Amino acid sequence: MYEVLMFDGGVHKIDELLDLIEDVGGFVLQRTQVQVMVTLTIAIPAEDRPLIEKKTAELGGKIIEVPLAGTEIAVIGPTLGRHHMPHPICDIAEHLRRYGAITIVMGLARGRGRKTCQISAAEKAIIEEYDAAIFMLGNFKECVTHEKIDLYKDIQIPVVTVVGPELESLPYCEALVCGVGRKVERMRRSEEIAKLEEIADRVKEVIDKRRKEIEEDPLFVHPSEVKDALESIGAVQESLRPAPVVLHVDGLRVKIPYRKHLRELEEIEVYGRKLKDIATISDCRLGDSTIIRIKTKAEVEGKVR
Q1: Which residues is 7 bridged to in the sheet?
Q2: What is the rounded CA–CA span in Å between residue 126 and residue 124?
Q3: Taking Cα atoms as reference points, which of 60, 56, 32, 61 lies closest to residue 44?
Q4: Which residues lie closer than 8 Å to 24 by C-beta, 6 or more apart?
């Protein structure tokens, strides 16, 4: 199982660390250098972490935990208008980024009003392209428990619900956080920051559970290995969009047009196999992007036989 970590330190002898990462079968997911300081987001086999930590200490750097690195998470509210809670939604999205996640904020088209709130099939399809979804459902207990649970009950990815009233449980979700509802100001107080930490902990638990499920029937290749191959594509190298290749738990989002580059993507080789044989490539519902879902070893080997 790969573990994603962040190295923060100086550039002096950084090549020694890069060589070690390559020797243990790891990958550099992102490199950011400012003058003589460098930050590396790396994916390494979990059993080789002590070697990386030892080399990091020799170089005078430090290892930072980023448990949500390699994930893309949607934070969703019934609407993004003042009637609901734009400030907590943005605070949650920002807080999860500190743990390595890439987040997006989304408001539903018909979210206002207890009797009129709804979610369309197109919105569900967009949400299901992410690794997990956080639904913020408001302050009113009866509204949450009787009406708004319908917004996410058919979502096919893990869902974490965040509500204002104190509830023991809610159906159709993997985790529940209470005490965060409608607000018209940023979450700055110590008790509010503690709630943001609680939400991050619940999301980490949900993602860890998903990763363990995948380990029971492992992916044919790790998403970071596919990312390494994708970076040879000219369109990816020339992309001006932030993070042109985004890792998911079971695949990637590549921010290049699907129809224009499908053939090129299909022919990319990863460990002697074409990408079309080891992954499902589909059009993204939002923007000119492509979704890649990596098949499991059993799926690929079964097809070969």
Answers
A1: 40, 63
A2: 5
A3: 56
A4: 44, 45, 48, 51, 52
- Strand 159-163 to strand 132-136: parallel, antiparallel, or no bridges (unpaired)? parallel
Query: How many angstroms separate the CA atoms of 43 and 30, rounded?
Result: 10
Pure H helices in the chain? 14-23, 49-58, 86-97, 121-127, 141-146, 190-216, 223-230, 234-238, 258-266, 275-278, 297-304
The model's pTM is: 0.88
The bridge status of strand 273-274 relative to strand 269-270 is: antiparallel
Those residues with Cβ within 8 angstroms of residue 211's Cβ, 6 or more apart along the chain or in another chain:
1, 249
pLDDT digits (tens, 9 = 90+) for 193-244: 999 999 999 999 999 999 999 989 999 998 988 998 998 899 999 988 878 9
The residue whose two tokens read 């923007």 is 287
